[in-house]
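TA notes, week 10

Several of you asked for a full example with nothing omitted. So below is the full record: structure tokens for the whole chain, then the designed sequence directly under it. When grading your own attempts, check the secondary structure regions first.
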């Protein structure tokens, strides 16, 4: 089966700094893959290149939706086009519309899927109303899957921290992705919230058939959840393999210089 994401020798140069240096990656349908590395290793920059925030200096990025007959380059596309193409992401710092309701935050994710034209939006014709009703329905269904349905009418800013992070995932799921990129989803979570997050990511993969690429510093989460791990340091790939292989890899241990890599 062809990979759903294929990154070929991607580099991103800022002035004299090669933040990402010839990094390649493949993700297969149904995988949970982690991208790890010390602070400043280039992980978020890599996400930004894949999701259209930056145009990579070198290399290419291809996606092939499950069932599609050929891969497509997404390099240089705007972020919303990449989202339409089936990749959705969350950010290191929570980016919710804090004064909007939980439901509205998820509905926003759906909007690029609406087909009605401006005419429909102004005159609210039957087709527009039906589409809007479907967006409300689908958004509510996602909130149920994420376990946030009891907060549906709360303002996003009033949710507990862990629930806000889960809402970001719900919003990303609203764009109907086949690959979800999560940038430090467990950051700031307590152990109970982290455990809920692990269960949620597994359900997203198993029930929703969405593959996951995550950046994470919480090594126990990484080791327990991911099937394959890519390790970067100074923008370069230094190791790739199963959690067991990565735990015992000398280069990885050296790069972390005493940072805990045991689960
Ligand atoms: N827009 C930018 N302009 C210049 N340098 C940048 C820019 N974005 C990131 N960098 C630099 O690129 C390097 C990689 O940063 P990046 O944020 O991708 O690392 P990271 O692995 O995600 O780190 P962390 O784990 O701390 O989030 C760092 O040296 C950073 O200072």
């Amino acid at each position: 089966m062809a990979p759903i994401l294929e990154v070929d020798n991607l580099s991103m140069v800022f002035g004299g700094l090669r933040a990402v240096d010839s990094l390649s990656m493949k993700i297969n349908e149904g995988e949970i893959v982690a991208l790890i590395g010390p602070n400043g290793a280039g992980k978020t920059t890599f996400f930004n290149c894949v999701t259209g925030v930056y145009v990579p200096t070198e290399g290419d990025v291809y996606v092939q939706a499950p069932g599609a007959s050929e891969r497509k380059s997404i390099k240089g596309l705007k972020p919303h086009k990449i989202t339409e193409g089936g990749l959705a992401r969350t950010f290191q710092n929570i980016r919710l519309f804090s004064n909007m309701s939980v439901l509205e935050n998820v509905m926003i994710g759906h909007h690029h899927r609406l087909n009605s034209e401006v005419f429909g939006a102004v005159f609210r014709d039957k087709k527009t109303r039906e589409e809007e009703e479907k967006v409300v329905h689908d958004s509510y269904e996602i909130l149920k899957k994420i376990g946030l349905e009891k907060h549906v009418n709360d303002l996003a800013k009033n949710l507990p921290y862990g629930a806000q992070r889960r809402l970001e995932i719900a919003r990303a799921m609203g764009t109907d992705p086949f690959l979800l990129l999560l940038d430090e989803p467990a950051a700031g979570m307590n152990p109970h919230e982290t455990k809920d997050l692990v269960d949620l990511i597994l359900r997203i993969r198993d029930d929703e058939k969405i593959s996951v690429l995550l950046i994470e510093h919480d090594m126990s989460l990484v080791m327990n959840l991911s099937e394959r791990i890519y390790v970067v340091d100074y923008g370069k790939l230094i190791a790739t393999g199963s959690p067991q292989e990565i735990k015992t890899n000398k280069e990885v241990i050296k790069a972390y210089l005493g940072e805990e890599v045991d689960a």
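Residues 126-146 form the longest helix (21 residues). Use that as a sanity check on your answer.
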